[in-house]
Amino acid sequence: MLVSINWLKDYVNTQQLPPAELGEKITRSGIEVDAVIDRSHGMTNIVVGYVESCVKHPEADKLSICQVNVGEETTQIICGAPNIAAGQKVIVARPGAKLPGDIKIKKAKLRGEESHGMICSLQELGIEGKLVPKAYAEGIYVLPEDAETGSDVLTNFDLNDTVLELGLTPNRADAMSMIGVAYEVGAILSEEVKLPEISYKEASDTAASMLTLNVDAPEANPLYVAKVVRNIKVQESPMWLQQRLMSAGVRPHNNVVDVTNYILMEYGQPLHAFDYDLLETGNITVRHAKEGEMITTLDDAERKLSGHQLVITNGEKPVAIAGVMGGADSEVSEATTTVVIESAYFESGSVRQTSKDHGLRSDASSRYEKGVDPNRVIPAAERAAQLLSELAGGEVLAGSVVFDELNKEEKIVKVSPDFINSRLGMKISFEDMWDILNRLKFNTEAANGQLVISVPTRRQDIQIPEDVIEEIARLYGYDEIPATLPEAETTPGGLTPYQAKRRIVRSLLEGAGLLQATTYSLTSEKSAKQFALEETETTRLLMPMSEERSILRQSLLPHLLESVTYNTARRMDSVALYETGSVFLKGDDELLNEQEHLAVAITGLWLDNSWQGEKKPVDFFVLKGIVETLGTKLGVQLTFERGQMDDLHPGRTAFIMLDGHRIGVIGQLHPSEQKERDLKTTVVMELNLALLLNIETAALLYTPVPRYPSMSRDVALVLSKIVEAGTIETVIRNAGGKLLKDVRVFDLYEGDKMEEGKKSVAFSLTYFDPEKTLTDEEVINAHEKVLAALTEVGAELRS
Amino acid sequence: MEAQLQELKTQALDKITAASTVKELNDVRVAYLGKKGPITDLLKGMGKLPAEERPKMGALVNVVREEVTTQLEGRMVILEEEAINQKLQSETIDITLPGRPVKTGNPHPLTRVVEEIEDLFISMGYEVAEGPEVEKDYYNFEALNLPKGHPARDMQDSFYITEDILLRTHTSPVQARTMEAKGGEPIKIICPGKVYRRDSDDATHSHQFTQIEGLVIGEDIRMSDLKGTLSVFAKKMFGDDREIRLRPSFFPFTEPSVEMDISCFKCGGSGCNVCKKTGWIEILGAGMVHPNVLEMAGYDSKRLTGFAFGMGPERIAMLKYGVEDIRHFYTNDVRFLSQFQRTEL
Ligand SMILES: [Zn+2]
């Protein structure tokens, strides 16, 4: 909402406050002032000029040489506007004038001809092009004939004005009008509000003699008022009206349309003007549209209507979409002589739905959607009649044509001062509360220790005692509220075990050198299921903003890998990222099965290229080590099972298992996937973190530090390449008996010294007895059993 | 023989002095004091001396032997020390070479901010509550006093999946769920999480972002308690000399509603580009829980009251760290992420 302070002063005394100060007061008491706009833009030396003569420039087709009377003299100005003509009153920026955008006007020579100033368009005075009346949009602005030559344009046309741009929250529909803002400012400054005085002469004929009205949808349209004004002359509005509309961000058209828009801004009540003759039937019928009925609206769009939409018809066909936009067929034009002015109360839900259906939001619909003041519908119609008779020479027919079933009563809210103070934690006196309610112009009585408040219908947002608390607090001043802390018993607070463990996972991964990434949950059809751990349907948004962000992801890796590629494409070759976040699977419930996952992606060097000459590219085992440590840290036994997944290397992929369940996958990207993503060797992991974190871990009890020494024995084995170390480890563990405490692979050799198809794997076995020192004999016995078992499975001992 | 002995002694002492390495000195030891050395020879040759001269000669030989030994050992200490020094000298390294890097990662800046806020409120007795990102319209809107068709629903265009299921537009549904689950009992929670709105991504908008909200419900919770709590938060988060100011605002789920500004932490209030010359920075929205919200969750709004507040970690991170483009948080450029390593304490 744009509020011209000069205009506002018609209704309330602003106490000559500087605009910024007034804006600050409004902001601090509830309506945010987003901007304070000086409409003069620091302009100076701009006067009304009279074009005495205008001839083509001999050297330039598009330029005219004008002799312009600027009051104190007649001076020559070269003008490039196509619509310049002798006899016009124009806006002249004199030499030395300042225009918006730091433009200074100087004497100049244009193609050999002197120019003492500039004839201006409205755009050059800082008015947005879309607000300039169409007739002057492409050229200079022509002032009315009675503009006084030589007089100051800024003063005459009210440009020495400041506009406050209000950022209105949806509850403050009351401030979508000048009068509404006046009530707010009046409450803040403790000033009275002056409403427009409405009076006009009525013709002896009645409106009812020319127009009949039927309302067939009283729930959606409980109040409809029509006035008929005849013998009007449609023309340009006077300057003051055009200026006020432009200050409010509305483009002037003609006096009839401008009057309806003016009252929309003044009262917040949308009006519509029909050309009476084009209505053809002398009837207005408000009803729901017939399914498939058509209307061409003022924006020249042909629109198909549906049964739930409310329309204004002439008894036969729609002439307007109620509260949203008028029809082109009955539009007011220069040929119009009689108009029907509509002022109505349309139910907000109906207008919202219809305006949404048609993608049409207008100044009118946005006010109806939030609810207009029931008590301003009729005054707005009267005000329109007055202005049309004053500005368009119209003759107002007596009375109105009215359908009225609208409840216009004020809501009563009762609240006690104690209640107000207890909720605020304050001690506002009864007198202060009383004063604030008076400033708000809320009729209030005191009864049985309660404030009984009749809330004016303009304030539809005040419904319950808490709403009154806010009114009192905001006008008393939020700065006056003391700062206290809740007096209730203190509670311990803290993280759940799940949340605490998630932090442990984070710090482990970060300690291991990984950076935490965050990527988007919405993805493309293509990426949605890549690397998904479970096979389920994808979930698509009803109205995505783009295909790229249309589906809920089922795995974190695709976006994480995009982030890796983003970095490698910028020459950061070694990247190690992790992310925790939700994936979304179709569930049994109507809500999705949302699982928190953990994903890791690492590419490039794991050990950095240091001056010591060591460097180690990342591989499967780097990441496997991280996962194993994660298991250890969380106290769960994670195992790995060879597996396959699309887009992972078929020989370098494993599933991460927990208690026999597949909870994740680890592997190297498939070479073709690496190529696709423009990556070198990249290892990835994704697991269902929720499953992992939801496991309750056992209490931690220490195992006594060994009092007796352990003994170790190494065995080097020659194995067929296809035999996995894990298999052999199991054989060893099974054969080693209870004295065998640990088995570790400490060497692997697959070089050319080995026979084709063979490899050498060396294990270190630790024997230990917690009860006593082991004897050589015991170790030999146990170890012999291990060796025998190894031989049995075909492992060849290497000397 | 005595002369011979003196001669030997002089020779030996000269060689000891001349020896410049431990090895040379050891050679001297072997040459003069060894089993095959001349002094031993002399002792062996004593048998040929008359018996009465033997004790005298023996004593003399021992004196010489001791003197040589003492000298030799003294020299040995010096030479060994020299040898060590030389060895250490040769082991000198270039201490200006870089150390072996300890590879460490760090949390995402948003996590950093969220956890800082979590910890602050945990210390004031709050619990951390979380909930689903795909939410029912009921919890996201209706339970929060936003019935279908409410004008405020326009404020947050949403991503719907079905008529009744959507990506949550704020973390407030977690509050609604918690209230429902607590069945009328007091609550003190904060709810961090991801939220989604139909915004085109640009420097200041993101279709996905994070929120952290707080909710306190109890007996006699007053608006002054909200102000006090927010003041503690502002000081802990942005510095002890921060002041707060509340401005009236509107949220459907609170009444009264406020927005909180803090005095600018960059200029202290005198006006700069961070605070857009106003001296104040808008940080969060808050208010007293709307009685409709309480009643809908089964609370007796006459008996229990509450306050709620909500803020955007992105905005806080942008202000705190001077980040100018919200998209940085979702691009994961390691040159950006790795800057959030060090502590600020
Ligand atoms: Zn500042």
UniProtKB/TrEMBL annotation, chain A:
<keyword id="KW-0820">tRNA-binding</keyword>
<keyword id="KW-0030">Aminoacyl-tRNA synthetase</keyword>
<dbReference type="GO" id="GO:0004826">
    <property type="term" value="F:phenylalanine-tRNA ligase activity"/>
</dbReference>
<dbReference type="InterPro" id="IPR033714">
    <property type="entry name" value="tRNA_bind_bactPheRS"/>
</dbReference>
<dbReference type="Pfam" id="PF03484">
    <property type="entry name" value="B5"/>
</dbReference>
<protein>
    <recommendedName>
        <fullName>Phenylalanine--tRNA ligase beta subunit</fullName>
        <ecNumber>6.1.1.20</ecNumber>
    </recommendedName>
</protein>
<feature type="domain" description="B5">
    <location>
        <begin position="408"/>
        <end position="483"/>
    </location>
</feature>
<keyword id="KW-0963">Cytoplasm</keyword>
<dbReference type="InterPro" id="IPR009061">
    <property type="entry name" value="DNA-bd_dom_put_sf"/>
</dbReference>
<dbReference type="InterPro" id="IPR005121">
    <property type="entry name" value="Fdx_antiC-bd"/>
</dbReference>
<feature type="binding site">
    <location>
        <position position="470"/>
    </location>
    <ligand>
        <name>Mg(2+)</name>
    </ligand>
</feature>
<keyword id="KW-0479">Metal-binding</keyword>
<feature type="domain" description="TRNA-binding">
    <location>
        <begin position="40"/>
        <end position="154"/>
    </location>
</feature>
<dbReference type="Pfam" id="PF03483">
    <property type="entry name" value="B3_4"/>
</dbReference>
<feature type="binding site">
    <location>
        <position position="471"/>
    </location>
    <ligand>
        <name>Mg(2+)</name>
    </ligand>
</feature>
<dbReference type="InterPro" id="IPR036690">
    <property type="entry name" value="Fdx_antiC-bd_sf"/>
</dbReference>
<dbReference type="InterPro" id="IPR005147">
    <property type="entry name" value="tRNA_synthase_B5-dom"/>
</dbReference>
<keyword id="KW-0547">Nucleotide-binding</keyword>
<keyword id="KW-0067">ATP-binding</keyword>
<dbReference type="InterPro" id="IPR012340">
    <property type="entry name" value="NA-bd_OB-fold"/>
</dbReference>
<keyword id="KW-0460">Magnesium</keyword>
<dbReference type="InterPro" id="IPR004532">
    <property type="entry name" value="Phe-tRNA-ligase_IIc_bsu_bact"/>
</dbReference>
TrEMBL record, chain B:
<keyword id="KW-0460">Magnesium</keyword>
<keyword id="KW-0479">Metal-binding</keyword>
<dbReference type="InterPro" id="IPR006195">
    <property type="entry name" value="aa-tRNA-synth_II"/>
</dbReference>
<protein>
    <recommendedName>
        <fullName>Phenylalanine--tRNA ligase alpha subunit</fullName>
        <ecNumber>6.1.1.20</ecNumber>
    </recommendedName>
</protein>
<dbReference type="GO" id="GO:0004826">
    <property type="term" value="F:phenylalanine-tRNA ligase activity"/>
</dbReference>
<feature type="domain" description="Aminoacyl-transfer RNA synthetases class-II family profile">
    <location>
        <begin position="111"/>
        <end position="319"/>
    </location>
</feature>
<feature type="binding site">
    <location>
        <position position="255"/>
    </location>
    <ligand>
        <name>Mg(2+)</name>
    </ligand>
</feature>
<dbReference type="InterPro" id="IPR002319">
    <property type="entry name" value="Phenylalanyl-tRNA_Synthase"/>
</dbReference>
<dbReference type="InterPro" id="IPR045864">
    <property type="entry name" value="aa-tRNA-synth_II/BPL/LPL"/>
</dbReference>
<comment type="subunit">
    <text>Tetramer of two alpha and two beta subunits.</text>
</comment>
<keyword id="KW-0030">Aminoacyl-tRNA synthetase</keyword>
<keyword id="KW-0547">Nucleotide-binding</keyword>
<dbReference type="InterPro" id="IPR004529">
    <property type="entry name" value="Phe-tRNA-synth_IIc_asu"/>
</dbReference>
<dbReference type="Pfam" id="PF01409">
    <property type="entry name" value="tRNA-synt_2d"/>
</dbReference>
<keyword id="KW-0436">Ligase</keyword>
<comment type="similarity">
    <text>Belongs to the class-II aminoacyl-tRNA synthetase family. Phe-tRNA synthetase alpha subunit type 1 subfamily.</text>
</comment>
<keyword id="KW-0067">ATP-binding</keyword>
<dbReference type="InterPro" id="IPR004188">
    <property type="entry name" value="Phe-tRNA_ligase_II_N"/>
</dbReference>
<dbReference type="InterPro" id="IPR022911">
    <property type="entry name" value="Phe_tRNA_ligase_alpha1_bac"/>
</dbReference>
<keyword id="KW-0648">Protein biosynthesis</keyword>
<keyword id="KW-0963">Cytoplasm</keyword>
<dbReference type="InterPro" id="IPR010978">
    <property type="entry name" value="tRNA-bd_arm"/>
</dbReference>
